[in-house]
Amino acid sequence: MPDFKIAPSILSADFARLGEEVDNVLKSGADVVHFDVMDNHYVPNLTIGPLVCDALRKHGVTADIDVHLMVKPVDRIIPDFAAAGASYITFHPEASEHIDRTLQLIQGEGCKSGLVFNPATPLDVLKHVIDKVDIVLLMSVNPGFGGQSFIPETLNKLREARKIIEASGRDIRLEIDGGVKVDNIREIAEAGADMFVAGSAVFGAKSATDANTYDSVIAAFRAELAKAAI
Ligand code: DX5
Ligand code: ZN
């Protein structure tokens, strides 16, 4: 069984109580904090930046923070996120003029680096830079908003990405982002993903007894993953 990681996207959290929300989701069994950065330029929405990442670290969050950059240009903001405590920094190849250089910049700052592929973006560039990639993130929705439906074609793309990763012989995570729910996480894992972003499915699942507890949905994810035929 692969070492599956569950990464709730704080895009769907209550931003007025962000530190508490992150504490609660980690206490409920999440592994990684997925941090969506949007600039109202590369994507049509505007969210959070390095100050908020730094605030979560100062609040006491020690889990990995997975910074998903949906910004253009990319390079200027990377050192700021590294200084703010990012663990992973991923970016969209369309948003960088020099993809190889951006990957080097991220690793040079001591973070794990990754490429994010939109639903219609082919994986072509991956093979040319795979020696500088620690994580591959496939978008299963068009980036910009939480709460969209999973695009089924992404399952084929996951299988293709998994083959490329296996052929490289490198220890590279394969992350999926968008529309992940309890009822599809198993087939997503079977297609090759080992890290699962879920925003609305996690933060929308308030427990009947305690609105700040997310353990039932995270346990349901793990139960489905345990059934995956891998
Ligand atoms: C979309 C973001 C996602 C988003 C996922 O651009 O990258 O991380 O929060 O939300 P759900 O899980 O609701 O599809
Ligand atoms: Zn994301």
Structure description:
By secondary structure, the chain is an alpha/beta fold. The chain has a single domain (5-226), classed as Aldolase class I (TIM Barrel), CATH 3.20.20.70. It is 34% helix and 18% strand. The chain is built from nine helices and eight strands. The protein has helices spanning 18-27, 50-59, 78-83, 99-108, 126-129, 154-168, 185-190, 200-203, 215-227, and strands at 5-8, 32-38, 64-70, 88-91, 112-117, 135-139, 173-177, 195-198. An eight-stranded parallel beta sheet has the order 1-8-7-6-5-4-3-2. The site of zinc ion (ZN) has 6 residues, from strand 2.
The number of domains is 1
What is the spatial order of strands in the main beta sheet? 1-8-7-6-5-4-3-2
As a percent range, the share of helical residues equals: 25-40%
Describe the main β-sheet briefly.
Answer: 8 strands, parallel
Number of helices: 9
Q: What's the alpha carbon Rg, rounded to whole Å?
A: 16 Å
What is the strand and helix layout of this fold?
Elements: E1 5-8, H1 18-27, E2 32-38, H2 50-59, E3 64-70, H3 78-83, E4 88-91, H4 99-108, E5 112-117, H5 126-129, E6 135-139, H6 154-168, E7 173-177, H7 185-190, E8 195-198, H8 200-203, H9 215-227
Bound molecules: D-xylitol-5-phosphate (DX5) and zinc ion.
The site of D-xylitol-5-phosphate has 22 residues, from strand 2, strand 8 and helix 8.
Characteristic terms for this protein:
230 residues, alpha/beta, TIM Barrel, eight-stranded parallel beta sheet, 9 helices, binds D-xylitol-5-phosphate, binds zinc ion
